[in-house]
Amino acid sequence: MLTRRHVLSTLATLPITGRTASALAFLAPPPPPNPRFTVLSLFRPQRLLLHAQNAPLTVQLDDTTLTLTRTETLIIDATPDALTTNQHPFTTLTLPNPATFALEVPQKLRRTYTGALTLANEQGHLRAVVTIDRELAVASIVAAESPPHAPLAALAAQAIAARSFLTAAHTTHLAADFCDTTHCQFLREAPPPASPFTLATHRTRNLVLQFRDPASANLSTLPAMYSRSCGGHTRTLAELGIPTRGYPYFAVPCAFCQAHPERWRNAPTTHATTELDRLVYNRIHGWSALPGHPDPGALEGRGIGHGIGLCQLGAAAMAFNAATYTAILAHYYPNTVLHSL
Ligand SMILES: [Zn+2]
Ligand SMILES: [Zn+2]
User: Fold this and answer.
1) DSSP string spanning 119-151?
2) What is the pLDDT of residues 2-17, one digit of tens each?
3) In the chain, where are the structural domains located?
4) Can you give the pTM of this predicted structure?
5) How far apart are CA 238 and CA 325, in angstroms?
6) Starting from the edge strand earliest in sequence, which strands make up the sheet with 207-212, in order?
7) Rounded Cα distance, 55 and 99, in Å
8) What separation in Å is there between the alpha carbon of 178 and the centre of ligand 1?
9) How far is CA 89 from the centre of its chain?
10) What's the CA-to-centroid distance between 48 and ligand 1, angstroms?
């Protein structure tokens, strides 16, 4: 078997001109695996409908394979200790090949995905995990996260931030890397191939942000954070009581939010001063209870979200003023470089 050690020792004995491009390509680290998302978990569904979409769907129920024709739907229910379809109990449903399919929470929501699917029982609810091609996931996130009418340069900056997050973030989800809510990044449906979201993703294909990690002195990919609006300047992790390992983030001025801050009032009386406090408070009182961080001692605030990293409204305004995506990223993420995966 050809091992990495064998290739390294062989290369060491070769004159430099003997190192072929293909041998060096072999040494490149493997691309990171495609991200896995838990989807529709906010609904804690006890029933999901699986729809084929324009092509037959091969479905695996434990050891049983069945085929849904292009117009067929499978109804899947969670019981306290199993999943069932047509009263047939099973443990896991998978789509063995990446496919295009729709999942529906009856009476609530239907979304189309392209990827691999696993459905399992999680304490009497259905847990749906979709593995999506990274670039398709980036385009889907850009479509879900970007303000309406954002110019292409802002979409490209958002694509790079989302791809960096998908590549480097470590989250705490069971059986998946990410969820499809603002806890991680919004993920809805893939945008059409000709949409500006897809175009921005293609233009920046494989590009991520990297920073020099003080712990190792190596370049590391930044799990880039961003929020809707910053209120006039972005925040450091330390300001919001988030422990800083690696990239500290920087408080940079944001011209658009200084001129047009998104204000909100009637902040609840709370001692939430750190980002963790805010998340805990919102987990109890609803995700819009404390939209951002209130001004000190006040019942109002400016800026929606944590205000760390790229400001989506500020980035769109920079792009309207002809800034490139590299200029936008350099502004909101100082001391970073672009790197191709
Ligand atoms: Zn999450
Ligand atoms: Zn801003």
Assistant:
1) EEEETTEEEEEEE--HHHHHHHHHHHHSPTT--
2) 344 443 343 333 333 3
3) 36-132, 136-262+303-340
4) 0.81
5) 27
6) 219-221, 207-212, 336-340
7) 9
8) 5
9) 33
10) 21
